[in-house]
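Consider one such protein record:
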Amino acid sequence: MICTAVIAGLAGCGSPPTATGDAATQVLVSFYPLQYLAEQIGGADVSVESLTPPGAEPHDLELSPTQVAQIGQADLVIYLSGFQPSVDQAIAERNPTNVIDAAAFTSLQPLSDESDAPSEGDVLDPHFWLDPTRMEPVASAIAEQLGGIVPDNAGDFEANSGRVVDELTTLDAQFEEGLAQCELRTIVVTHAAFGYLARRYGLTQISVGGIDPDSEPSPARIREVVQALEGTGVTTVFFESLASPDIAEALADQADLTPAVLDPLEATAQGDYMTRMDANLIALRTALECS
């Protein structure tokens, strides 16, 4: 049986220096997972600011005129094209000098490839960061770009990136080990955010809703999910803390499931990427009855 204490211990691995507000190099990111990478890699040499306010839902982000102006003034802008339309539009309008589009460093998958999620045409699933291995090339790209902007600190950025990649590799290995021996292989979620995680670790995602966590599933969709769960032995329906638990509770009542939290890590919250992924692993191991 894998030791939970070992999994939890990952959060303490190699914490980097915290970015300072006095730094001359201004990095603007569009939402939390990219903020985490920028802070870890930039360290004390950069100031990182997110366009998505703390605790806010990034899918529905609307930018203020001040934020649009910031995009044109920042030393580096890091975003994910196709995820936040207001950010895409502002970048096209302001044309910042240094930009990293995370989509260029990971192969996004169509949600329609998930036969167990409601169809949304050819919409790409943006939630790549829930597969730690997909974060690694983005980390390397950030270090390279920052090194070009501040050559004197390029060695620090490269070293920080190497440490982050090592931690992501370790996290991936712990997920593989932690989810290898489980009685169940199906996760039921209210938000179709966990397709990359499911594919990486040999799980099946059944989602009541779509990519947008605020979308309301139809009664017919809820009935479909209830029918799909018959005979599977699934005991848990996952929802996220920033969204209403109403959908999860409705499904729980109809299918005799227990609601539990699974974090899509889209927004800032207590803890960082590593500690929150650690909590996800513990939640998954409990729900899937892993040994």
